[in-house]
Structure formats: C-alpha cells, structure tokens
Amino acid sequence: MRARYARSRNPEPEPIPLDGSATITSIRACADDPARVSLCVNHQRVGRVLLNTKLELKLEVGTPWTAPLAEALREELDRGNAYRAAVRILTKRAKSSGELRRKLREYRYESEAIEWSITRLTELGILNDEEYARTVVRSQLSRKPAGRRLLAGKLREKGIDQATTDLVLDEMLEDRDTIADARKLAQQAARSISDRYERDIRVRRISGRLARRGFDFDVIRKVVDELDL
Questions:
Q1: DSSP class of 2
Q2: Are 23 and 65 in contact (CB under 8 A)?
C-alpha cells in the first residue's frame, strides 16, 4: 500500500510504517462532506473514509497503523483521493475522460481508483465525452472552416475515442456544406497570396492550406479549379 495518497507540491514524505509503530494522529469531520472524516497518520494526511467505516473499524486517535488496517482502507482511500483530484481538475477546465485519465496517471493515482472515478463522474453527468467533443468541434468551426479529417484529429488529441468521434462528427457535419466551407477558405487564401506568383505556386499554397484544415483531396481539387487564378 502506498504511504501517500494525495498529490502535493511538497517533497515525498517518508513512508508510513505498517508495523504498528505509527498511529492515527487526527480524525476530523469534513466540512464539505459530513458523511466522511479525514485521517492523518503520523501527522500525514492519508485521505478520507466514510463515517460508517470509522465506526465499523473502531478508528480512533491513537489507533496503531498496521498492514491489515492499511489494506482494509486501501480501496476507499485510493478511490476517494483520485475522485477528489478528478473533481479539482474538472473544476479548472473541462476535459474528456481520456485527458482526465492521463492527468490522474501523471499524479500517480492507482489505476483501479482512476477508472472508478471516471465511471462515477460519468454516471453523475459531470464527465460527458459526447458533449465535450461537440464543444471542441464547435470551437474549431467557429474559428474557420475545417474538414472532417482535421476535426477527427483534434478529438483524438483530446482523448475522445473513435466511436464517440464518429457519432459527434456525423451529427455536427450532417447539415454543413463541405464544398462551401472549403470554397470560403480557398477564396480567403487566394486573396492573401500575391498574384506575382505563378499560378502553380498559388495553387500549391492554397491547396496546402485546405489540406492542413482537414479537407479531402477531391474537395480541394474541386474548389481550387473554380478559382480564377
């Protein structure tokens, strides 16, 4: 069992011994969660447990911290610490389940606790990959036209799985005119490239911009052929 459960900016404390030489030094009610209490062992905070857990295990200040006790509390402490860290992360900025999973792994929370936290947050509606993906796509399209390929890449970077990506893009691109979007971007690009360049050079540059915005080759060729270059 890990001696430390919560992320801290401070250096790692010494591992808490499990031979009974360490004791519970503080049990405090949680002001933001009356159903739980916060435990400290040897003056190190190890996390929160349910009040019912405290009563069932007869936890008191001075209770020896042994391997069996640490193991009995391990899952509850790990899950609670990972869950609260996840909530803090999401409070700062919305994330996909994939992004949240990566961040919690960086903070070295246990894998089982991470998956439990993600499942719980999804059940509560706090974590919603579909809605997050829609927000990402909406933001991209509000900046400038984009093709499906670029949008799919952005969602992949955000940790959105393929099934959710396909679902959201099918939904959000259904009523969009891909040719019209590409044409608008091509016209903007054409105006920004000096006509002192040869036509072939202008075509390559405009095509490159469209490709970087995720439009397919057939679409690019069609709209570029329409331009009066």
A1: -
A2: yes
- Tens digits of per-residue pLDDT, 50-91? 999 999 999 999 999 999 999 999 999 999 999 999 999 999
- With 0-12 CB in 10 A as exposed, 13-18 as middle and 19+ as buried, what is 110? buried
pLDDT in tens, 164-214: 999 999 999 999 999 999 999 999 999 888 778 888 899 999 999 999 999
Q: Which contiguous run of DSSP H or E holds residue 49?
A: strand 44-50
Burial track 143-155 (b if 16+ CB lie within 10 A, e otherwise): eebbbbebbbebb
In angstroms, the CA 223 to CA 184 distance is 9
d(CA 117, CA 84): 9
Helix (H) or strand (E) holding 16: none
